Amino acid sequence: MKVLYILPGSLSRTDLGTREIDRRRAVLQRLAAPGTEVDIVDVPDGPSSIESAYEEYLSVPGTLVHVQAAARAGYAGAIIGCFGDPGLDAARELVEMPVVGPAEASMLMACTLGHRFSVITVLESVVPSMRHLAHRVGVSEKLASVRAVDIPVLELAKNRERSISRMIELGRRAVGEDGADTLALGCMSMGFLEAHQTIAADVGVPVVNPVYAALKMLEALIGAGLAHSKRAYPIPPKMAAFQVASR
Amino acid sequence: MKVLYILPGSLSRTDLGTREIDRRRAVLQRLAAPGTEVDIVDVPDGPSSIESAYEEYLSVPGTLVHVQAAARAGYAGAIIGCFGDPGLDAARELVEMPVVGPAEASMLMACTLGHRFSVITVLESVVPSMRHLAHRVGVSEKLASVRAVDIPVLELAKNRERSISRMIELGRRAVGEDGADTLALGCMSMGFLEAHQTIAADVGVPVVNPVYAALKMLEALIGAGLAHSKRAYPIPPKMAAFQVASR
Amino acid sequence: MKVLYILPGSLSRTDLGTREIDRRRAVLQRLAAPGTEVDIVDVPDGPSSIESAYEEYLSVPGTLVHVQAAARAGYAGAIIGCFGDPGLDAARELVEMPVVGPAEASMLMACTLGHRFSVITVLESVVPSMRHLAHRVGVSEKLASVRAVDIPVLELAKNRERSISRMIELGRRAVGEDGADTLALGCMSMGFLEAHQTIAADVGVPVVNPVYAALKMLEALIGAGLAHSKRAYPIPPKMAAFQVASR
Amino acid sequence: MKVLYILPGSLSRTDLGTREIDRRRAVLQRLAAPGTEVDIVDVPDGPSSIESAYEEYLSVPGTLVHVQAAARAGYAGAIIGCFGDPGLDAARELVEMPVVGPAEASMLMACTLGHRFSVITVLESVVPSMRHLAHRVGVSEKLASVRAVDIPVLELAKNRERSISRMIELGRRAVGEDGADTLALGCMSMGFLEAHQTIAADVGVPVVNPVYAALKMLEALIGAGLAHSKRAYPIPPKMAAFQVASR
Amino acid sequence: MKVLYILPGSLSRTDLGTREIDRRRAVLQRLAAPGTEVDIVDVPDGPSSIESAYEEYLSVPGTLVHVQAAARAGYAGAIIGCFGDPGLDAARELVEMPVVGPAEASMLMACTLGHRFSVITVLESVVPSMRHLAHRVGVSEKLASVRAVDIPVLELAKNRERSISRMIELGRRAVGEDGADTLALGCMSMGFLEAHQTIAADVGVPVVNPVYAALKMLEALIGAGLAHSKRAYPIPPKMAAFQVASR
Amino acid sequence: MKVLYILPGSLSRTDLGTREIDRRRAVLQRLAAPGTEVDIVDVPDGPSSIESAYEEYLSVPGTLVHVQAAARAGYAGAIIGCFGDPGLDAARELVEMPVVGPAEASMLMACTLGHRFSVITVLESVVPSMRHLAHRVGVSEKLASVRAVDIPVLELAKNRERSISRMIELGRRAVGEDGADTLALGCMSMGFLEAHQTIAADVGVPVVNPVYAALKMLEALIGAGLAHSKRAYPIPPKMAAFQVASR
């Protein structure tokens, strides 16, 4: 079974980016259950990183093209590889296979791990949309706080140690000041640092890595034979009419 | 003072559509307070109508281009002319002038008119996103229900009488079965039918026309000297960095 | 078109008070849209200021007399000029024209300006009733906090600079500690200081002046042809029976 | 120990009313625990019955006079004898003794009896204010519904059998359609019919009589040595200043 | 009339414990209204104290045996003497008489005393379950915070002064930092210290003693002729079938 | 890796029950991912089925013994095989490995599949506890309804066709009347009928089988390297003290 991990931004325009795409694919493949094959694509005309609603919207059309193509190509499911879950509702409208958003998957996993969770993310500019996401997922009652390390996405990996120590610092404050008993890392580039266990060991609470959460939730859905409700995410009416008409 | 009404879909590709654009501009101009001049534009490569999350996303990039251009051209504010308020958060990130969404404006006005309001919209496919909108606006406690007339956007004006009688029928059920004391019409093409007073007279509760609500809310904000919070809708960080760098 | 601004307290008993009434009328008239004429009355046997539930109740009977008289005299709408919105529900029961409460109007405008707003008000004694008001308005999900400057209503104008600097201080704390991105001034005497732009410039977020919000919301409702739902605010049953009987 | 039951309306203007006041006092005295003496007063210039926000406000000033007098006369506590709890917050501001509202007491008792309760009240015109009351009490999560028998207050006792059969009918619908497992009678005149056990036996769920709930809650508070928080209900600031000044 | 106070833990295994049981019975009897006789039992094979969900569950089977026996023996009602209200739902399923939980009773009384209450309890380990309890009771909207003195149950009485001073310290922080205007003591061993008035005098807000609240609420329910809804707490179906079969 | 599925009731007391245990183990093993071995145990002195809070409590002590034994025996995780998730919080206090409750797992999966889900369960007697469960899980905002087929647990498999047709009937009503777009089967004996796909095909929405959800969620947690937060579920304090003392 093959699943597709879609990077909604443009990483393939530089050699460095291409190597990072390869590294991420390898991380995902290592995590995958036996029998799961993970492919990865990016959106070459998407934004270089997503730190605003504006960039989220710019990433969506290209992402949706990949989702539709994956369904036609027989993939068993897809992951939209950004913690903003950009275009997730539209993706689910367009296809029958399960499409997983890392924010949704991480928040649901965080819900089972404790009573209140905090999200540690990159910049203040995305904090409000994280709160809206928690409501869409349906778990806002359990969201203790969203805190930002104040490091742009593209800087996270440049100084890995500083990034980790900032995540630890904010994680401690989320636990001590906001009452969180569980953390989720709110950015895929944070997840691909693979530092969640270091942070968990230091802060003393479980840390949900969105890379892991997204892949494991997708495998769980596929394993349970489930896909998203077409009553919740109906095929766009004019598209449905066209499909009927062209039969 | 000039304000811009942006049609996020493509109406100008046919003569009929062009005439409808002119008609809508005339409606808006007639409603405008003395001293307000209303311009109107559409998004020629946008969807023909918006009845899904998918079409919402497709409409956003072109809409945002108009918003940015309007701000540069000195408009005092803009309205995103779709009841889904597509791209509203991003629009507010990009500019300093107020940008109004008809759903938000209508729901806020409905909140002052009574205790519980219902939205009468076009198709079941947009009902869940209306509920999410009510939460984003912050008024979900007052939302009694969302009901769909089951008439596609592009059919509404073709049989105006049938559309009105369906809106009346669902309005009565919203009042009688869902406990609503106020209605909002959940589609701009419904609003431009200008049938809200007919419906209100029949159902016996106030009916918020989103065309009116959006324009009056925009005038109210401008009149009160207010624009959206840049702490809530910060300029995208990389764009802000670019602006600083290019000074 | 004429609208009536009702001061629910007694200001006209001293020359100083009479001059303040005149000043407030001039402020309102200056703010009004072309074609709107603003009259102002006070409640001579009302309390000298409203800083408790007790004083709110004392102000209501006289306020309601003015509301009824205004409707009979053909006013297009009325504003109850106290941020506690005293007697607003009863006023709407008694008349068909729109009656606006400054707290409701300000909170609804604050909702469109950002994600979370705080109210800056006078004394701790009114803080709980502000929270209840936010719930009645339907927007308690967006209320970040209510903070009191600890200056009685009647002292606000005596030391304008101190009042403004306290409002700025609490506004900064609301933003920094409570997560607000928008402020509303929770007292009409604060509003008539006309310092909202000074505060906004200092704190860096929009500040809703309840004087402006109330007038602009009333003009917006009238402009949109809307009045409050009689299903939400029915005429008192025995009064309705009397009206029917006396026909 | 003496407690005062305040009728916020005018019952003593007719002989019939005076006899009804005596009857109600006798009912209360019969319910009282050993050692509790119940006095009763009405508000002669209050409304003849309370079926609107308007009438609630008219009843408050006279009610508050009685509350203050009772405190000075050494009563151990007071009950505001209307299910709208009119002026309850102000009453608590003015005195140190506990003041109980029947709606609050009934809703709190209903909360312990089951998972979801419904209120059966008189007219549609008071339904929205019951919902607001449930929120003020803090128990809106447990409110299943509010249903009105459509019988004015002053008619309830005229046809006792019809009133009871309507309460039973609506109680059944609250249980069957709204998911209530407990009922509260939402009007003191309903309570003084003393039909709650008949209704409970028929509908099969407990029925909270607000007359009993108010008196028993007041006795419980006094018995536990508790009175309302002055932090929640502070003495009105100017009144407090006056008390300090006059020492 | 006799009521039973059930200690869900094992206190009778030592002489000291037996004397404490006697002391607690005397406290309860002193508080009881004229005509109420209070008996007390413990659960000898229960936990020595309850500071975890684990110990709560261990205490339930023995507690339920006492509840059933009390009903058969003609008691008018029972109190489950632990602030976790362990097994309260099951107890209500098994019998027709009212069964009161001190947490539920205290939280409901706290709701009438102010706008927001805090619970002062023993250890961090029980804080999350207190929050869940507040939701079950239906009053989570009014819960300001839960704070733990960090003293185990069995240590509370050993250094009474230190315990009281810690409760005062946390009470002050609940009021000053969390916005509480009312406190409830979240442990029966705290209640039996009978220090609530000392704490209230120091902190300046009412303090609900769960011993008093439970007994007074039980007396109030019995006095009002009320017992828990069998629709909410139905007799276990197989047990009901058995009862029918054995008639 | 081995995981343990614990039946909290007594099934092994009859041959029929023993065969059913074997069948359930085979179903679980068939579902398991490659590398997962599923063992199964029951609680011989537990209740024959769980249809009340009373029976839940009776099942907990024996269940917790199994959980502790499994942790000592090196299992990677455990499932408490009852949709009431009895004792789940205590189980997580006692061990470091993940312990999954089928209700929690099913509700979280239902959250990702749509906007609103309904639970189809056995008897009315467990409906209120399902609602409480949804709140504990943190997803009550998404719970559309809980509906009962009115068939006792032990009857479900006796007339499989009738059980399935009742589940379909209620599923249709949940979708049509309650607005659900996703269903979850609220009883493990329902799940082991393995009829979820039949129901899904008929009703037209995804149906979460709690057997599948629990196993896949446990595998996902183990695969992501996650276990429950010890800050949320701390080891019982006296037990922790004992462990420290006995080192």
UniProtKB/TrEMBL annotation, chains A, B, C, D, E, F:
Single GO MF descriptor: amino-acid racemase activity
PANTHER family per the UniProt record, alphabetical: PROTEIN DCG1
Family: Belongs to the HyuE racemase family.
The protein's name: Hydrogenase expression protein HupH
Organism: Candidatus Segetimicrobium genomatis
Lineage: Bacteria, Bacillati, Candidatus Sysuimicrobiota, Candidatus Sysuimicrobiia, Candidatus Sysuimicrobiales
